[in-house]
Amino acid sequence: MPRAISQRTRVALAAREDGRVRVVSGDGAVPAAEAGAEFRLGEGRRTGGWSDYVAGCTAVLGRRGHRLTGFEAMLGSDV
Fold this sequence. Notes:
Number of helices: 1
Strand content: 25-35%
């Protein structure tokens, strides 16, 4: 059953027009070597890291007809 939890995820976004996505974990929860990823929309590949969730979301949105232009994102979470 769904229930409210006190944890939060925060995302800061900036649009890009070049079809690239750059994501960074801004909360220090992952090692520095795994803290960021960059890929071109439609070309995201599985890495086994947390950024696969972002690549998967962009892939599904693109397949469903949403026009994506690229973005930069900093994510933070206490989940």
